[in-house]
# Entry
Amino acid sequence: MPTTSSPRLSVRSLMSRGASPKGPEGQDVIEGLSRIPRSIPTYYLYDDHGSELFEQICAQPEYYPTRTERQILQRAAPEIATLTQMRSLVELGSGSASKTRLLLDSMVSHWEKQPIRYIPIDVSAKILERSAEDLLSSYPTLSIQGLVATYELALADLPPAPDRLVAFLGSTLGNIPPQECARFFTQVYAALAAGEHFLIGVDLQKDVDTLEAAYDDQMGISAAFNLNILNHLNRRYGGNFVSDHFRHFAPYNATTEQIEIYIVSDRAQTVTLKNLSLSLDLKPGEQILTEVSRKFQVPALRSQLQDVGFTTLEVWTDPQDWYAVLLLQKQ
Ligand SMILES: C[S@@+](CC[C@H](N)C(=O)[O-])C[C@H]1O[C@@H](n2cnc3c(N)ncnc32)[C@H](O)[C@@H]1O
# Structure
């Protein structure tokens, strides 16, 4: 169903099909919260307010991934345009698309006045529509076909477009649990034609203090972002979570090599989500996992991508080796 349409901009929502082909709306919340240990699917962090809070996290001094990825892309974007000859940029989890501008700039310089296309995909409709309108006013040769959708729904229904590159920036790959990663790569691979490209930005392993500070900034924005998931569930499913009765906790797990982000119940409490007919008895100190942020090693990631059929064309890193951007091609 189109939500916006003009000659250069269309935004279509696939969310009425439910967020996942796995079941009806809210089924994933019921499953995650009913299981011990409890969890909530990560994409619920990104309602309109969550998307705004994420933008604020990106500007915090502790949150190095955004500025490091930006520095790498500033250097690599012209080479990416030349190596790929991309005319269409598909972006998974596009958010505010601020770093995307570096890729669009390089496409515009490469193709000059010829038309280029952008296909942003995000569960958060408002930020997608706002960023699309901003981009249209900056790039006269650009047309945009946005999809409000989860990755899996969008990858199964990508609009045809010439010479595509699928970008997955912000180390959002790290939010996909390891056991789901191979299936995700297979979905991206299946969505591309032979010769098309995949660009991934990933956060690398580093000292624990730097990692943990990035997910628990002094201004408390990461905490507010995490706890906002409860307000989102309350609104969407008639819940009665009181966010003041929970706290944010984001330790690094050295065994799984990931930051694990929890909300922790600070008391014994019963919470209900009326529209899902779900009632939870939470113990004091009980943790609910809302997000993981995996920290990668480039050789292992390359080998996993190679198993799916991708060839690595180039890897760019920063001088501290904190972050990497990988350019891959479907053979
Ligand atoms: C970590 S942010 C990254 C945003 C941006 N790409 C960047 O680099 O700053 C993740 C983005 O993906 C979106 N998102 C999260 N889970 C999603 C899912 N399952 N399907 C589609 N979009 C999702 C969020 O709304 C958010 O805009």
Observations:
- Residues 51 and 127 are 7 Å apart (CA to CA).
- Residues 42-43, 46, 51, 54, 58, 66, 93-95, 99, 121-124, 150-151, 169-170, 172 surround S-adenosylmethionine (CB under 6 Å).
- The mean pLDDT is 96.
- The chain has two domains: 2-14+52-207+295-330, 27-42+216-294.
